[in-house]
Amino acid sequence: MLPEEIRKPLQDRIEEVAHPRELIVDVVFALQDHYGYLSDEGLEEAAGLLGMSPMEVEELATFYTFIYREPVGRYVIHVCDSLICWMEGQESISDHLSRKLGIQPGETTPDGLFTLLPVCCIGYCDRAPAMLINRKVYGELTPEKIDQVLAQLRSGSDSTGTT
């Protein structure tokens, strides 16, 4: 059950708009942030809040890359595998991340800290190769830079900022 401190602001926002369905992505992200992913319960709650069927919410959830229908790690690493990032060394970056984390794309580390996912493009071509970690962009990646970011995240120091 969604806590009132999350439900109430969502309901207030929904009541302010002429077409509540416009807020589906915002509502789904709020539920995902609460549950850690869009659980079946969260999907049902989103549908109820917006006056939609669960199937309509599911259709949206399976379309968007940044909506997770299964549990993910505390830090979700999206590695850009666009043409530009590939030309700038994305393959070696992906390989380095897999080796360093001990997982393949689509997997989560046993400690539940990191999930590694490929993404088509993150729009950061001018700083390729790039990745997103929990919607924060990191660019001009090197193995050393990745090691530094991972070490900071592991230590709980998330002060690496957009680079």
Brief descriptors of the model:
single chain; 163 residues; alpha+beta; Arc Repressor Mutant, subunit A; Glutaredoxin; four-stranded mixed sheet; 11% strand
Q: What's the multimeric state?
A: single chain
CATH superfamily of the largest domain: Glutaredoxin
The total domain count is 2
CATH architecture of the largest domain: 3-Layer(aba) Sandwich
Shape field: elongated
Q: How many extended strands?
A: 4
Give the proportion of residues in helices. 40-55%
Q: Rounded to an integer, what's the Rg over CA atoms?
A: 18 Å
Distance between the termini: 38 Å
In sequence order, what are the helices and strands, one letter per element?
A: HHHHEHHEEEH
**Tally of helical segments:** 7
- Structural class, by secondary structure, is alpha+beta
Mean pLDDT figure = 91
How many strands, which pairing sense, and closed or not: the largest β-sheet?
Answer: 4 strands, mixed
Beta-strand residue percentage: 5-15%
Which CATH class of the largest domain? Alpha Beta
Strand order, sheet with most strands: 2-1-3-4
Low-confidence stretches: none
CATH topology of the largest domain: Glutaredoxin
What can be said about this structure in brief?
The protein has 163 residues and is of the alpha+beta class. The protein contains seven helices and four strands.
Provide a descriptive summary of the structure in words:
With 163 residues, the protein is an alpha+beta fold. The protein has two domains: 4-63, Arc Repressor Mutant, subunit A (Orthogonal Bundle); 75-154, 3-Layer(aba) Sandwich (Glutaredoxin), CATH 3.40.30. The chain is built from seven helices and four strands, in the order ααααβααβββα. It has a four-stranded mixed beta sheet with strand order 2-1-3-4, with helices on one face.
